[in-house]
Amino acid sequence: MIAKVSRPNLLRRKNLRPVAQLTIPTWIFLALVVLIPFFYGVYISFLNINLASFLPPSFVGFDNYQTVLAASETWSTLRITLIITFIGLLTQIPIGILLALVLHENLRGTKIFRSILITPMLLTPVAVGLTYRFMFDTDLGVINWALGSIGIEKVNWLGSQTSALFAIIIVDSWQSIPFVMLLVLAALTAISPSLYEAARVDGASASQIFRRITLPLITPTLLVITMIKIMDFLKLFDTLFILTRGGPGNATTTLGLWTYKTGFVFLEFSRAAALGVIITIITLPVYFLWRRASKGVR
Amino acid sequence: MKGKHLLKGRNFKVVALVAAAVLTLSACSSDSESGGEVGGEINVFLIPSPSSTSIQSFIPEFEAETGIKVNVSETPYGEAHQKQLLSYNQKAGAYDIAQFDNTYLAPFCQAKAMLPLDSYISGSDEYDINDFGQGQQDYGKCKGETLGLTLSTEPMIQWYRTDLYEKLGLTPAKTWDEYYENAKKVQAAGFGGQIMGFGPNVSWWWMTLVWSFGGALYDENLNPVVNSKEAVAATDYLKKLLEVSPKGAITATGDDTTSKFLGEDIGAMLNYSGYYGMALDPSINKNAGKIGTAPAPMGSVDTTHLAGWNIGVPADAKNPDAAWKFLEFVLGKTNSVKYLESGAAAIGRKSIINNADLVAKNPYLPQLEIPSSSRIERYPQIAVWPEFEVAAIDAVTQVLTGKQKSQAALDALNEKLKPILAKEPKS
């Protein structure tokens, strides 16, 4: 058997062994903080733990899954999550690309402009949520004041589902667009200038250069960004919690926020664990797509 | 002769040991009951609030006087009760005193998580339970046992702007019709008519109206009755009030409601008296000296929606006697004025409510005296209340945002509440 192992493979294995040994503590740490809680979460989703009941937990099979799948809130919050994800992606990716293209031109003042654009990304979502909550205030907010000064009537930003969702997307976009912009900018920098020079020599227009050269070459990066953003939207919580708390009513409650409410407000830990497993199942295809897209970037 | 033999040799040793044990135990019990020497340290679990800050201000004096060390841990409201439930569930004995919201009295009671304080209370002249009205004596009671002392007395009351009311010739409303008419007149004069929190805490106001209109949330068998004609009328009235409120009221929380009332020109507000601390802060209150208070308007039934904090001793407390000593020190009669003046929400002791000097500084204090004719309604004492409340808020919001009519929304809510209430552990 040993003779069958080719020499390069053997070498690689020998080289890898110390590396593998050195990473063992990290794997143990990851198992402790990720795998064990995850499998424990799956386990308790089959029990009936309610923090307020003080009864010993018992095995209930798929009861929690049946309950959450039968609840209208699960589907309405999933719908809201998908709406935010879809509109958010449609807003953030094109604007991110546009800003990256502008910065890539290295115009005068680009460095300052880039620093300013990155600032929102550095702020904590809770502080951003609180600031915007005041800005969106119907009676005292600066946004309505600005609209009023040009004769537009006050908008009840957080008081109806449509405008509240719109407000959430505005705030998240304000914070996330710099991230999209930075990654696209990195992808643009990696494109060889000779390709553009050759295209210009051939008489290609700016739009043709963008469609035929830039876009295809940054597509793997865009796919990675899309997947990361989808995962971000699926776990969107902090800004949303501060801005609307999922209201009015449950009108802007996402699946993640509903899971939080189920666990930490209703104290139904097992039901929340079942919802967590469902979110994982929804996220799984996105994760695999992200892995595939990442290979393209490499 | 037989007795002689019994007290000899091995038997004598056994009797002596038993006698020593009995004497030690009786010494311990007399120690705790008579309020004798109590020492050691206590761990106090508090929730950030003016009440918590006031409690902490008493610690140095208490420690110096008794030699008991007081350790405090504060946990924000969002996680506070979950943390307590976890601790009680594990019988960790982590806390000797715990502050909690009255809404959690029911789950704590079902879990037997808190120590009944009745024997301590009845033996304490310093605490003087008779200084409280009956409703407030019962505020921390569950199944006849006192599991929590009253840490704040916060009835839902009417607040109004004396300057605006005087200018428009209005008087505080005695009925809900008057309240609406007043708000309409103030709005017609170019101000905000009235305000209450129509946002994520709308349940506070909705419940108040449902009770006042003669409705209920559930019957004695825990069947939901939120779609009764009284509850529908209350919900319709709540929507009507939205029309005479500032636009932003639809998203206002309890805090937002108070900030808006104190910072803008709004005729009246219905809110818990506990918010009066904000009115005493000149950086928040732009209308200082122009705020009046009155009892909440009356509907077909005379009810008072009473809220407020409780504080108690967990059943697994390691040092319950020292814990009581601390509670007695902070919340007893001697320090009651000092407690209020240190910024806490008032506790409705008769001696506080009737103290003219205090009333001059805190004109809302008379509102804490709840007449015996008024039926006191507390947050529903059920363990499933959080889930019930979220469902109710969603349904009421559907009405307020015009998505559904009151009857349809409450019919749907009633159906939704059936499985929720069915989960309530039967006592």
Structure write-up:
The complex is a heterodimer of chains A (298) and B (427). Helices cover 76% and strands 0% of the residues of chain A. Chain A is mainly α and 298 residues long. Chain A has a domain at 78-256 and 287-297: MetI-like (MetI-like fold, Orthogonal Bundle). Chain A starts with 6 loop residues before the first helix and ends with a helix. The model of chain A has no long low-confidence stretch (mean pLDDT 88). Chain B folds into 2 domains: 38-153 and 308-368, 3-Layer(aba) Sandwich (D-Maltodextrin-Binding Protein, domain 2), CATH 3.40.190.10; 156-305 and 383-422, D-Maltodextrin-Binding Protein, domain 2 (3-Layer(aba) Sandwich). Chain B has helices at 2-6, 9-33, 50-57, 59-66, 77-89, 105-110, 118-122, 134-137, 162-167, 176-188, 202-212, 229-243, 254-263, 276-279, 320-331, 336-341, 350-353, 356-361, 385-400, 406-422, and strands at 41-46, 69-74, 97-101, 141-142, 145-146, 149-150, 154-161, 192-195, 266-272, 291-295, 303-307, 309-312, 375-377. In chain B, strand 4 and strand 5 form a beta hairpin. The longest helix of chain B is centred in the N-terminal third of the chain and has 25 residues, at 9-33. The chains are: A mainly alpha (298), B alpha/beta (427). At the A-B interface, helix 11 of A face helix 5 and helix 19 of B.
Fill in the keyword field for this structure.
heterodimer; A: mainly alpha; 12 helices; B: alpha/beta; D-Maltodextrin-Binding Protein, domain 2; six-stranded mixed sheet; five-stranded mixed sheet; 20 helices; 13 strands; globular
Architecture of one domain in chain A in CATH?
Orthogonal Bundle
* Number of spatially distinct domains of chain B: 2
- Which shape of chain A, going by the Cα principal axes? flat
Q: Largest interface, counted with CB-CB under 8 A? A: A-B, 29 and 35 residues
Main beta-sheet strand count, sense and barrel state of chain A: none
CATH topology of one domain in chain A: MetI-like fold
pLDDT average of chain B, as an integer?
Answer: 89
Apparent shape of chain B:
globular
